[in-house]
Amino acid sequence: MAARVIDGKAFAATVRGKVAEHVAQLKAQGITPGLAVVLVGADPASEVYVRSKGKQTVEAGMHSVEKRLPATASEDEVLSIIEALNGDPDVHGILVQLPLPGHLDESRILATVDPAKDVDGFHISNAGLLATGQKAMVPCTPLGSLMLLRDLHGDLTGMEAVVIGRSNIVGKPMAQLLLRDNCTVTIAHSRTRDLPAVVRRADIVVAAVGRAGMVSGDWLKPGSTVIDVGITRIPTESGKDRIVGDCDYASCAEVAGAITPVPGGVGPMTIACLLANTLTACCRANGLPEPEGLTA
Ligand SMILES: NC(=O)C1=CN([C@@H]2O[C@H](COP(=O)(O)OP(=O)(O)OC[C@H]3O[C@@H](n4cnc5c(N)ncnc54)[C@H](OP(=O)(O)O)[C@@H]3O)[C@@H](O)[C@H]2O)C=CC1
Ligand SMILES: Nc1nc(=O)c2c([nH]1)NC[C@@H]1CN(c3ccc(C(=O)N[C@@H](CCC(=O)O)C(=O)O)cc3)C=[N+]21
User: Does residue 52 have its Cβ closer than 6 Å to ligand 1?
Assistant: First the structure.
């Protein structure tokens, strides 16, 4: 039987609608949540994301700030922009678009963002809070993936989850969230022996690798849920890029019980969760109760 297609695009629109409702309530009290995006250099893919983040921020009723620096910007210039945003009371969320140009020290830059405004959840203090089961800012892509899984399955307790990829921005926080929801979690990576056999154990597979079509349907346990985080750009004859995931969609959709498409799966959830995190940060900054259903 063909897998159910998990409509991340539609779910993300619902999340953004909830965020917009909360924002309207805050604005009635004279509070406008604000998100600042810092973009260093002009990577074309980053330009696309930053533009759609700005548009969706404004559509949700929030204040949107864009700080652009040339690819040649010095580390001190980037740090002083972040420090200014840390001190700006109209800004509740700060996102430094990755990847950064190679001459910049990414960990030093991310560590400069005020953890309370770290809507990406990349600051080590947020990573540590998440790992120790405390209230944190949770990275957007794992948070969005978890929302899709909870919507599909309700309680995840006892499920076997295999996360492929161990990056600090996707794989590791994803594994932490699944663990917190009582899954039995395995993290696989490039040194994993017999990856297909590991994946075959999984009720839930999260693929966050960046290798187009790597996971094939015959790796999957029939009926399992596949969350495809990967995004690889493939040039097409028309000159416009097409994006594909880490899973071979055609063969996986024959075996899985449910699968996220690329595009239209996890990607839109990432941006919706960025707005949700900005709202959460704004509520915390103002000592107000947090929105329900929009945090982990
Ligand atoms: N949809 C969205 O919103 C988002 C999508 N992405 C996409 O998700 C993907 C992953 O991103 P990110 O985590 O930043 O990537 P990284 O490159 O930081 O991490 C990739 C991970 O995949 C592992 N890996 C590489 N090759 C293999 C292999 N052959 N078998 C098993 N594991 C392997 C690596 O292992 P090792 O550690 O051993 O090197 C590493 O842990 C990318 O395609 C990215 O574009 C990212 C963020 C948001
Ligand atoms: N500090 C930081 N935080 C990030 O969250 C971050 C980042 N840097 N750098 C790049 C990655 C990638 N990322 C995506 C966001 C949205 C889509 C998205 O909306 N994708 C759509 C389609 C987009 C298209 O067609 O290109 C989809 O999958 O349907 C994808 C990927 C966030 N990232």
Answer: no
